[in-house]
Write a structure and sequence with these properties.
elongated, disordered C terminus, disordered N terminus, alpha/beta, TIM Barrel, 18 helices, 7-stranded antiparallel β-sheet, 8-stranded parallel β-barrel, Immunoglobulin-like, 22% strand
C-alpha cells in the first residue's frame, strides 16, 4: 500500500475498533520446541513464531480479527523482550531473533475461539525504524510471512482502496496435511523424457470449451484439472506443466495508479500463501491440492514458477507487507549506507547469504513439495540466487538446497540470469551439488535464426544436440516474457511449424508456451504482463479456432500433436547424454568392434550425401542434414533430419557409398513446408530414390525403414 492509501485507511479507523481499544495481553510462553515459523497447532491452541531484527523491532502484536469484520480487532497478543525470544541466529553480523509464544484455542477474556480460519495480522508496536517515506511501522497491518492463506489482498484491493474503499491484508490460520497422506503416486519421469507446457492459471483455460457443468471452472486451479484441459495436455504430448507464479502477489504502485494490475504474478508478497483469485471455491488450498492430484493421476508433473529474487515491497516508498518492517536488514541486500541494492529491476533483492533468507526459501520450497505436492520449480532470475558466486556449488543457498533431503530430489530449473548480469547458463547446467537444469536462451536465439535462414550451422547443430548437457537443458522458442510464436512469425504458419518441429527433434527438454501449439497471439504485444482492473486476462487462447475444420489453428494443433508424439515415442530424440559423431561399437565374441557399416550415433551431411567438411560448415550455404542412429538409445529406427535455411529449394542426396550409414529406404514423417507430420509407420510418403527435394526455410524428418549396402538394391539382412 502506498502512503496515500495508508493515510486514507487510518481516517476510517474511527468507525472500527481502534488498536488501543482492543484487549492487549502478553503472549503466553511457547510450548515445546520450535518446529517451524508461523502458526503451528499445539495442545490446546497454537504456537506462533516470527523472525525479526532484534536491533530494530522490540515489540510485535499478533492481532486477532473479528470473523465477521476483518477491520475489527478483538484481541492483541503482545510479543517482545527476552521472555519471548525462542531462537537466535548465532552467525556474526546477523541480528535475527525468533520471537513468539502460545495462543490458546479459547480466549478466556474475550470468549473468542481461535482455530482454523481465524483471521489475524501483525503490527510492529515498538520499533526505531520508519520507512523513507515517513510511514511508521505501527500503522501498517502486516502479513505473517508464513501464513498459508491471506485474504483482502488481491489486485482488486488496490483498485478499491484508490476508489475510497479501505482494505487490509488479513492472514488465516490453517492446518495442513502431507502429500503422502493423500495416497497419490507422483509421476516418475526421467529428466530427458520431460515435455513441458508453460501456462498461466487464468489464461490457460479461460474460454476453453467445457461441459456446462464445469464452465465456471475456467481460469481457475480447478480448471487445470478438468477432463478437457487434461485431454489437451495428452493430445499435445505434455507430461509436465510449468505454472506461472501462484504465490500471493501484489501489483506495482505505478500499475495501480493506471488502473491496471500485474497479470503474470511476478511480484510476490508471500512465499507460502496462494493467489486466492485463481480459486473457484472458498477452499483455495484444497482446490490447489486437488488440481495437483488430478494432474498426477494423469501422469503429469507439476512445476511452479517461483520468484525468490525480490518481493512486492519494491523500493523506497513502495508498499510494506512484512519483511520490510520486521527484518529488513537480514532479508534484503543493502549497501554500506543501509540502502536497498538490487539486480532484479524491481526495487529490491533478497540477500542470499543471510541465514534468514536461506531458511525462508528452503522452508517455502519444502512446503510446496511436502504438503502441496508439487514436483519441482522454475526459479525466476536465478542468477540472483547465487549472489555473486561464480562457482554456484559454493553459493550458500545452492548448498542448502543440495543438502536438503527433500529438495535435492525435485526438478530444479533455473532462468540462469539476473536483470543486470549474473549470466550462468553453463554454470547451472554443470552444477555438481544438485542436478540443475536451465533455460537455454542460446537455443532460443539459434532456433529463431534458423526459422528465417540466418543461423550459424555449427552453432545450430550444437544446440540441436543439447549443447553438451541435453538432459539439463530446457529448449524453448517463446515463453511468457516476449512475443508469442504466432506474433514472432506473423502470418508465416510454415515458420511456426518449423519452430515446433525443431523443438520436438532437438536433444534437450522441450518447453512450449500454452497456445503456441495452435496460434496463440498477443496482438504483437511482448509485455502482456499487466491488464486493466476488472479484465480477467489480456488475451485469450484461440480455443474456438481449433474447432473450425481447415483453420490454420486447427491444422497447427494437429501438426504440433504429431511432432510431439514422434518425440515421445522415439528415445533417439531425447538422449540423456551428448551425441558425439563417433563410430558405434558393439560386442562380438567378447570384444567391442566397430559397426560393420561404420554407422555413427550422429553424422552430419551436406547436400551431396557426404559428411560436411570444415569449409562447408563455415560456408554460406544454409543446408545441412543429420543421420541419427537408433542403436545407442534402443530405438527401433534410424532417422534423417534435413534442414534447409536457404531461400531456394535444395535437391539433397540421402546417401553415398563413402557414407554408408545414410544409405537406405525412407518414409517421410515430418515436412514443415507441407504441414505433414505423423508418428505412425506406413502413413508418410515412401522415398526410394537417393535424393529428396526440400523447400526453402523448411525441415524434413525421414524415418529409415530399410538399410542398403553400398551399390546393392534392397534391404540389408
Amino acid at each position: 500500500m502506498s502512503a496515500e492509501v495508508l493515510d486514507y485507511s487510518r481516517t476510517h479507523q474511527s468507525e472500527q475498533l481502534t488498536s488501543a481499544e482492543a484487549p492487549t495481553s502478553l503472549i503466553e510462553p511457547f510450548k515445546g520446541q520450535l518446529e517451524q515459523l508461523g502458526m503451528v497447532a499445539a495442545e490446546g491452541g497454537y504456537n506462533f513464531a516470527i523472525s525479526v531484527d532484534s536491533e530494530v523491532v522490540r515489540t510485535v502484536d499478533l492481532c486477532i480479527h473479528d470473523p465477521d469484520n476483518p477491520f475489527y480487532i478483538t484481541r492483541r497478543w503482545r510479543m517482545g523482550g527476552a521472555n519471548h525470544v525462542i531462537e537466535r541466529v548465532a552467525e556474526r553480523g546477523d541480528t535475527t531473533h525468533t520471537i513468539g509464544g502460545f495462543v490458546p484455542a479459547l480466549d478466556a477474556e474475550t470468549g473468542q475461539s481461535i482455530g482454523e480460519g481465524t483471521m489475524y495480522s501483525l503490527r510492529v508496536v515498538d520499533s526505531n525504524w520508519t520507512r523513507n517515506d515517513g510511514i511508521a511501522t505501527p500503522d501498517i497491518p502486516l502479513i505473517d510471512p508464513r501464513a498459508r492463506r491471506v485474504l483482502q489482498f488481491t489486485h482488486n484491493e488496490f483498485a478499491q482502496i484508490m476508489n475510497s474503499v479501505p482494505s487490509w491484508p488479513v492472514s488465516l490460520i490453517t492446518t495442513g496435511e502431507s502429500y503422502e497422506d493423500r495416497g497419490i503416486q507422483r509421476p516418475e519421469i526421467k529428466r530427458s523424457d520431460l515435455n513441458i507446457c508453460e501456462l498461466h492459471v487464468r489464461s490457460a483455460t479461460l474460454g476453453m470449451p467445457m461441459d456446462p457443468s464445469r464452465a465456471h471452472l475456467q481460469g481457475t486451479y480447478a480448471g487445470l484439472a478438468t477432463p478437457e484441459h487434461i485431454a489437451y495436455l495428452d493430445q499435445q504430448g505434455y507430461n509436465a506443466v510449468s505454472i506461472l507464479p501462484v504465490h500471493l502477489s501484489a501489483s506495482e504502485p505505478h500499475l495501480v495508479r493506471q488502473g491496471r494490475y500485474n497479470f503474470w504474478g511476478y511480484s510476490t508478497a508471500s512465499y507460502f500463501a496462494l493467489n486466492e483469485s485463481y480459486a473457484s471455491s472458498d477452499d483455495t488450498i484444497g482446490e490447489f491440492k486437488e488440481m495437483v492430484d488430478a494432474l498426477h493421476v494423469a501422469g503429469k508433473q507439476v512445476l511452479l514458477d517461483v520468484v525468490y529474487n525480490h518481493t512486492a515491497e519494491g523500493g523506497v516508498a513502495d508498499p510494506t507487507y512484512s519483511y520490510e518492517a520486521l527484518n529488513r536488514k537480514n532479508i534484503y541486500a543493502l549497501n554500506e549506507s543501509g540502502n536497498l541494492v538490487e539486480n532484479t529491476g524491481c526495487g529490491n533483492m533478497l540477500d542470499m547469504t543471510k541465514p534468514a533468507v536461506i531458511r525462508e526459501i528452503v522452508e517455502s520450497l519444502r512446503y510446496w513439495v511436502t504438503e502441496m505436492g508439487v514436483d519441482g520449480f522454475r526459479f525466476d532470475l536465478a542468477g540472483v540466487l547465487t549472489h555473486g558466486h561464480h562457482d554456484i556449488d559454493q553459493a550458500p543457498l545452492m548448498k542448502a538446497i543440495a543438502g536438503d533431503e527433500v529438495l535435492s530430489g525435485v526438478v530444479l530449473i533455473a532462468e540462469p540470469w539476473a536483470a543486470y548480469g549474473d549470466y550462468k547458463l553453463d554454470e547451472f547446467r554443470h552444477a555438481k551439488s544438485a542436478e540443475w537444469m536451465a533455460w537455454s536462451d542460446k537455443y532460443r536465439e539459434l532456433a529463431r535464426q534458423a526459422m528465417f535462414g540466418v543461423a550459424n550451422k555449427q552453432d545450430l547443430s550444437n544446440k540441436l544436440l543439447g549443447h553438451d548437457a541435453p538432459d539439463r537443458t530446457i529448449n524453448y522458442v517463446t515463453a511468457h516474457d516476449g512475443n508469442t510464436l504466432r506474433d514472432l512469425v506473423g502470418k508465416n504458419v510454415a515458420a511456426e511449424r518449423f519452430a515446433l518441429a525443431l523443438l520436438a527433434i532437438s536433444q534437450g527438454i522441450p518447453q512450449r508456451q500454452a497456445g503456441s501449439d495452435f496460434g496463440y497471439s498477443q496482438a504483437s504485444n511482448p509485455d502482456a504482463y499487466d491488464c486493466e482492473v476488472g479484465q480477467r486476462a489480456p488475451y485469450l487462447l484461440p480455443w474456438q479456432k481449433i474447432e473450425e475444420p481447415g483453420s490454420t489453428e486447427a491444422e497447427l494443433y494437429d501438426f504440433s500433436a504429431a511432432v510431439n508424439r514422434l518425440r515421445n515415442e522415439h528415445p533417439i530424440f531425447r538422449q540423456a547424454s551428448l551425441l558425439t559423431g563417433k563410430i558405434l561399437m558393439h560386442e562380438k565374441a567378447g570384444k567391442f568392434v566397430a559397426h560393420p557399416l561404420g554407422e555413427k550415433d550422429v553424422a552430419w551431411l551436406g547436400a551431396f550425401g557426404l559428411e560436411l567438411t570444415e569449409a562447408e560448415w563455415n560456408g554460406p550455404d544454409q543446408f545441412f542434414g543429420m543421420h541419427l542412429s537408433g542403436l545407442p538409445s534402443g530405438d527401433d529406427a534410424n532417422f534423417v533430419v534435413l534442414i534447409n535455411g536457404n531461400d531456394r529449394p535444395v535437391d539433397a542426396a540421402l546417401g553415398h557409398d563413402s557414407h554408408q550409414s545414410s544409405l537406405g529406404i525412407y518414409e517421410e514423417v515430418v515436412n514443415t513446408a507441407t504441414g505433414f507430420a505423423t508418428s505412425e509407420l506406413g502413413v508418410g510418403r515412401r522415398i526410394t530414390e537417393e535424393r529428396v527435394a526440400i523447400s526453402p526455410r523448411s525441415l524434413i524428418v525421414l524415418r529409415q525403414i530399410a538399410q542398403r549396402l553400398p551399390g546393392v538394391k534392397g534391404k540389408l539382412e
